[in-house]
């Protein structure tokens, strides 16, 4: 349960615009206290090599300076900053930009997958949905991607398609041209969007269709004399014909069209009209809520016993038939060793260690010979609800390096694996390699700056000769690391 008037902030670093939401919970009801938006068009600054243009990044950083005072007033664990399509594409080359964002906001940026983005959008829209549970299809057209989700109380199908109002503007509406001579760029964009939707005609069947975010709200205002209300098939057919007949975006004489949205409106409309046509939709209701509200609800859940990530791990354990008894043994010893080593270790790190251990044998569901590598691959590339991409990388790194030679990771923004967690996981695996219960009362782990020191009771070693051999091998493995491991019998 939230404490009275507990406040949260969500910041969505989208491909077209950045959005800030400050909200609080009054009872179980979320109340929006403050919203802000900056039309950044981050996707415009992404070149073919996935590099961000300095002019666009400066525009983005200036917008964040405006948001900073709101974020600065809250505890760090009450703020979440997420990056979506453009930052997913640029992540490998955007370390400097992301570090500057964090220095301004004081909060790390989490790059999320398209499927996680879709889940958060669905949860945000449904958080305030009224009436009895019913089948819904939620649509969100962003700057770089379009998310479609089908579900009732929870998502049943999540899709993220690489088509957005900014990316399609760059692709089809260069210099703002819509139609000239025999080339109709609006028709080309609409056909391309319909092609992307070819396998999804069923996603809106027998469901209430709800749209959200900038493009859909802009279309709604134009079709409804400035009000945000439902969009009908007839309305959007007429609007699409009108826009496709124009020569240039500057020629669009549309009431209630925000001038900041004008350069990307034709592309967004082409995508939305394609969705209506390809999915055979007659009416789309429009929600004022979207991903920001989903982020806030997720944040509140993490702090008050409803962490979606824990549910995801539990589902993976079941799906991959993990030996839960072994995971319990290894986790118990590893966490005790971490407590010895770092009594004040952050709770989030302890949870990450526990989750990695729960999944450390997940690869055994498919292979014995390369189970660590396969398990790590599945964790890194799976769509894990609630997790950011860097969190998945951390888990995958720990699983891959649970035994044997320790691989040096390629570190980047958001991914700086902890040797403390790795050591404790590896020691836990060694202690219980034979899948038996074994107390660690005879072990003492501490850090002297230049090396880890593990003191082991000689009698304990004598009773576990195989473990003693594995500990000697572990000392050798740590010689390749920045910090050594020294094992001493006492």
UniProtKB/TrEMBL annotation:
<dbReference type="InterPro" id="IPR003695">
    <property type="entry name" value="Ppx_GppA_N"/>
</dbReference>
<dbReference type="GO" id="GO:0016462">
    <property type="term" value="F:pyrophosphatase activity"/>
</dbReference>
<protein>
    <submittedName>
        <fullName>Ppx/GppA family phosphatase</fullName>
    </submittedName>
</protein>
<keyword id="KW-0378">Hydrolase</keyword>
<feature type="domain" description="Ppx/GppA phosphatase C-terminal">
    <location>
        <begin position="309"/>
        <end position="474"/>
    </location>
</feature>
<feature type="domain" description="Ppx/GppA phosphatase N-terminal">
    <location>
        <begin position="26"/>
        <end position="300"/>
    </location>
</feature>
<dbReference type="InterPro" id="IPR050273">
    <property type="entry name" value="GppA/Ppx_hydrolase"/>
</dbReference>
<dbReference type="Pfam" id="PF21447">
    <property type="entry name" value="Ppx-GppA_III"/>
</dbReference>
<dbReference type="InterPro" id="IPR030673">
    <property type="entry name" value="PyroPPase_GppA_Ppx"/>
</dbReference>
<dbReference type="InterPro" id="IPR048950">
    <property type="entry name" value="Ppx_GppA_C"/>
</dbReference>
<dbReference type="InterPro" id="IPR043129">
    <property type="entry name" value="ATPase_NBD"/>
</dbReference>
<dbReference type="Pfam" id="PF02541">
    <property type="entry name" value="Ppx-GppA"/>
</dbReference>
């Amino acid at each position: 349960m939230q404490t009275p008037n507990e406040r949260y902030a969500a910041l969505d670093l989208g491909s077209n615009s950045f959005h800030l939401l400050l909200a609080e919970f009054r009872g179980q009801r979320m109340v929006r206290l403050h919203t802000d938006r900056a039309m950044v068009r981050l996707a415009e600054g992404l070149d073919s090599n996935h590099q961000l243009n300095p002019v666009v990044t400066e525009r983005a950083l200036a917008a964040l300076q405006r948001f900073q005072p709101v974020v600065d007033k809250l505890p760090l664990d009450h703020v979440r900053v997420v990056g979506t399509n453009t930052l997913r594409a640029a992540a490998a080359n955007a370390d400097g930009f992301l570090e500057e964002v964090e220095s301004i906001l004081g909060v790390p940026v989490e790059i999320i997958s398209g499927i996680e983005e879709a889940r958060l959008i669905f949860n945000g829209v449904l958080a305030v949905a009224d009436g009895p549970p019913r089948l819904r299809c939620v649509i969100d057209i962003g700057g770089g991607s379009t998310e479609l989700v089908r579900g009732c109380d929870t998502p049943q199908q999540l899709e993220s398609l690489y088509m957005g109002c900014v990316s399609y503007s760059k692709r089809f509406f260069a210099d703002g041209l819509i139609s000239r001579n025999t080339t109709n760029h609006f028709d080309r964009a609409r056909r391309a969007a319909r092609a992307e939707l070819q396998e999804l005609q069923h996603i809106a069947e027998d469901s209430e269709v709800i749209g959200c975010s900038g493009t859909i709200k802009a279309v709604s205002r134009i079709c409804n004399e400035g009000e945000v209300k439902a969009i009908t098939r007839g309305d959007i057919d007429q609007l699409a014909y009108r826009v496709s007949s124009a020569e240039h975006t500057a020629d669009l004489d549309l009431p209630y069209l925000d001038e900041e949205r004008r350069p990307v409106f034709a592309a967004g409309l082409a995508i939305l009209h394609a969705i209506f046509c390809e999915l055979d939709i007659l009416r789309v209701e429009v929600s004022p809520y979207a991903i920001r509200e989903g982020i806030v609800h997720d944040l509140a859940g993490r702090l008050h016993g409803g962490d979606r990530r824990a549910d995801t791990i539990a589902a993976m354990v079941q799906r991959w038939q993990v030996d839960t008894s072994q995971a319990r043994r290894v986790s118990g010893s590893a966490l005790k060793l971490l407590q010895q080593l770092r009594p004040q270790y952050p709770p989030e790190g302890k949870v990450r260690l526990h989750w990695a251990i729960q999944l450390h044998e997940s690869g055994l569901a498919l292979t014995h010979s390369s189970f660590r590598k396969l398990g790590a691959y599945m964790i890194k590339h799976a769509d894990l609800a609630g997790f950011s991409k860097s969190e998945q990388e951390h888990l995958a790194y720990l699983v891959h390096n649970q035994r044997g030679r320790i691989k040096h990771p390629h570190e980047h923004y958001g991914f700086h694996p902890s040797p403390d967690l790795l050591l404790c996981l590896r020691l836990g695996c060694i202690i219980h390699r034979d899948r038996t219960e074994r107390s660690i009362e005879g072990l003492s782990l501490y850090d002297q700056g230049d090396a880890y020191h593990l003191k082991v009771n000689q009698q304990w070693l004598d009773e576990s000769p195989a473990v003693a051999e594995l500990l000697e091998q572990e000392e050798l493995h740590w010689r390749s690391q920045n910090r050594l491991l020294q094992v001493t019998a006492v």
